[in-house]
Write a structure and sequence with these properties.
The chain is of the alpha/beta class. Helix content is about 45%, strand content about 10%. Helix 2 packs across helix 3, helix 3 packs antiparallel against helix 4 and helix 3 packs parallel to helix 5.
Length: about 500
């Protein structure tokens, strides 16, 4: 079965240990005394050293002096006085800043549809967890039970001709054969997994499914030699298993239950090895062909293109050739001149196999194209400009500062300007505008953990790995010196990831 090198997945948005995304429960969002006017955040908190905001009062002799809000009209005792704009300190230095939102981008605190970001749907686990050999989870997909029933039925029919004395017990023997066959497939996949771990390539999971199994390897081999070895060890181990079952069959009497089972397992492992050695992606032989072309040309993308197109040609050959071979009797069956149920089943099997091979070849092309464009995913380019606010700053004042500065993120800092937490955009959108003067930003913030601080220099797979290690909705992006550069949204990375996949080579 193929050792599938999966595309690096986009970071999943999560809570990173804080409140779940979109959690805007009033008990968490509401802050302060509802009968007292909110206090504006201290202007000393504006320490991002990213240039001025345009709200400094002109002509003021003291740039830190707060402008007094207008007095309420006489008799209007219920009028809410909005916090005064906080003046900016001016240019602290001239470090580069994250780009401001393009014209037409929605300001912070407003969603495109009024509902905020869509909730994250966790990736399905892949079926029933069977164990974690070498630390890699092994799942059995629901489709396996269907193919196990199919194998039990087909092999049971063969046992009826070979061992008619078994009666109904032949189906128990057939079920044992189905389980033993997939145990052989698991050993095949574990060979890929052990080789990948030996080359320090992370393996996401092993999944046993309808037509065999898949080892989901998250990274690509660094050299064509390693790619060849990684692909070849699976069919090699299937050949070894076939030899083991052949040797074991010589120790038992033919025509008995153990003899029939061992012979069936020997033949099935030979078929698995031969099928996977076919030179087309996504099969192991396709990856071996890719490694050879990569070695000759020096370009992995050319190897992928060649092996993928051979895989598509192979899919067409299976679709047309397999029914013809079975109908002609070339595979050891009786030739059939008329179209019966067996012919229909052969055609259906060929169509399913061809679809799997064709789809796998196309996915291999898309993953190769994605890896080619992955270096374009740079934390520095995707980071949103942010403004610092202190914990007691009302949300309305914080949004005013952010929108005036063309920023789309808020960082909660202490009195010394050290970042404490990030204000979640989903929580901001969930607070009605009339309540924002009474809600402190601290009630909407997610505490920073070490994993939520990422370097502005990260790019490509390193960036995705850093974000996957600590799932969150926003990350604080810092310079090598520790200075704040801005805030990186997982949604922005996911959008860039999707664009990279769609962009042609």
């Amino acid at each position: 079965m193929p050792a599938e090198a999966t595309a690096p997945s986009a970071p999943a948005e999560g809570d990173g240990g804080g409140s779940p995304e979109g959690d805007t429960h009033p008990d968490r969002a509401y802050a302060g005394d509802p009968h007292a006017a909110p206090t504006a955040g201290r202007p000393e908190a504006d320490r991002l050293r990213k240039g001025p905001t345009p709200d400094q009062a002109p002509g003021s002799g003291d740039p830190y002096r707060r402008q007094q809000p207008p007095a309420p009209a006489s008799g209007d005792t219920n009028r809410v006085q909005q916090p005064a704009p906080a003046p900016d300190r001016g240019h602290q230095n001239h470090r580069p800043v994250p780009p401001a939102p393009a014209h037409g981008d929605r300001p912070l605190g407003h969603s495109a549809d009024g509902k905020g970001p869509a909730p994250h749907r966790p990736e399905p686990r892949g079926g029933l967890l069977m164990g974690r050999p070498f630390g890699v989870p092994v799942y059995v997909a629901p489709s396996w039970f269907l193919v196990a029933a199919l194998i039990t039925w087909v092999f049971g029919g063969q046992l009826e001709r070979v061992l008619p004395e078994l009666g109904a017990a032949r189906y128990l023997v057939s079920l044992f054969f189905a389980v033993a066959f997939y145990a052989s497939v698991l050993v095949h996949e574990l060979a890929h997994t052990v080789a990948a771990l030996r080359f320090k390539l992370p393996v996401r999971r092993i999944q046993l499914q309808f037509f065999g199994g898949v080892s989901e390897i998250e990274k690509e081999a660094e050299t064509p030699g390693r790619e060849f070895i990684l692909a070849f060890v699976g069919p090699l181990l299937s050949l070894v298993l076939a030899g083991v079952f052949y040797g074991a069959a010589q120790t038992v009497e033919p025509g008995t239950v153990p003899g029939v089972l061992l012979a069936g397992l020997m033949i099935s492992n030979l078929i698995v090895a031969a099928f996977n050695l076919l030179p087309g992606l996504p099969l192991d032989g396709g990856r071996m062909l890719r490694a050879i072309v990569w070695k000759i040309t020096g370009k992995p993308m050319k190897g992928t293109i060649a092996a993928a197109w051979v895989g598509r040609a192979l899919a067409v050959s299976v679709l047309i050739g397999l029914p013809l071979l079975t109908q002609s009797g070339a595979l050891g069956t009786d030739a059939a001149d008329n179209v019966g149920m067996d012919t229909v089943l052969d055609a259906l099997l060929a169509a399913i196999l061809a679809a799997i091979i064709w789809t796998g070849a196309g996915n291999s092309l898309r993953m190769a194209r994605l890896r080619e464009h992955l270096p374009e995913l740079r934390a520095r380019a995707l980071t949103r400009r942010a403004v610092p606010v202190e914990t007691d700053t009302p949300l309305s004042e914080a949004l005013r500062r952010a929108n005036a500065a063309g920023a789309r993120a808020l960082v909660v800092v202490d009195a010394d300007g050290q970042p404490l937490s990030l204000v979640r955009e989903a929580a901001i959108v969930g607070v009605p505008e009339h309540r924002r003067p009474w809600v402190a930003v601290s009630g909407l913030a997610q505490d920073l953990t070490d994993g939520m601080r990422v370097s502005a220099e990260l790019s490509g797979e390193e960036l995705l790995d850093a974000l996957r290690a600590t799932p969150a909705t926003e990350y604080l992006v810092v310079e090598e010196t520790g200075e704040i550069y801005g805030v990186l949204s997982a949604a922005d990375v996911e959008r860039a990831f999707v664009k990279a996949m769609a962009r042609p080579s």
